[in-house]
Amino acid sequence: MRIGLITPDAGHPLLAAAVAALAPGGHTVQVLDPAAGAAGAAGAAADVYLLKARTPSALALARELERGGAPVLNSAAATEACQDRTGMAALALRAGLPFAPTRTFAAAARLETAAGLPWPMVVKSRHSHKHDLVARLDGPARLPELLDDWSEEPVVVQAFAPNDGWDHKLWVIGDRVFAGLRRSELASGAKEPARSLERLPDGWAGLALRVGEVFALDVYGVDVIDTGGGAPLIVDVNAFPGIRGQAGAPEALAALALRRAAP
Prior knowledge:
Elements: E1 2-6, H1 13-22, E2 28-32, E3 48-51, H2 56-67, E4 72-73, H3 76-81, H4 85-94, E5 103-105, E6 121-125, E7 134-137, H5 143-150, E8 155-159, E9 166-173, E10 176-183, E11 195-196, H6 204-215, E12 219-226, E13 232-239, H7 249-260
Parallel strand pairs: 1-2, 1-3, 3-4
Antiparallel strand pairs: 5-8, 6-7, 6-8, 9-10, 9-12, 10-11, 12-13
Organism: Streptomyces lavendulae subsp. lavendulae
Keywords: Ligase, Ribonucleoprotein, Ribosomal protein
Protein name: Ribosomal protein S6--L-glutamate ligase
């Protein structure tokens, strides 16, 4: 089989290890530079493509390949859907997933005059991007500080849900669920190293798989917090995250690519 990687970093640990897992079977790997945009699809002839990048040029390339009938994991549409936190929340809530109710503002500056803000609250960039805004505000006093840097940023607002300060990182590859704990960037106190998570609360693995069905994702991450007694609240969904340090993840990705390859 021929596997195409749409990524600017083919040396990423997950991808590199997946390529190594494919090598004994005689499968070949082609790296497509997303910076080339749709022009990068010229001459491409892989049986399946893994869309690791999320830039506009990478999405354009993925769409071009999809129009030619090639399977792309994740699809361009599913990847793009995870970049808009307003649409993400709406889709999740319509599907009955335990997702934080979300309010959208065209610019953070509008928070100054907004009524009914749910203090304490979490403010995030509406569109997920590198170094985007994610901040907890316990009251109006911190709002001017935030607006110094982010006044024109489109944002979403969610009520802060009390939790234990740890993000449960659930990563899914096909039907395999991997998990870990990372200290929430919203938690107070000193940073702590990530922890392994050998057992998920009951029902959480099924919840992670349900997210994939709702968002039409094949490789994705779900950030969940425990709001007490094992009650989960989804706070983010990511298309094709890094999934570092998870034993078996590269092999699961290689197997998924082969299963989804076009005949």
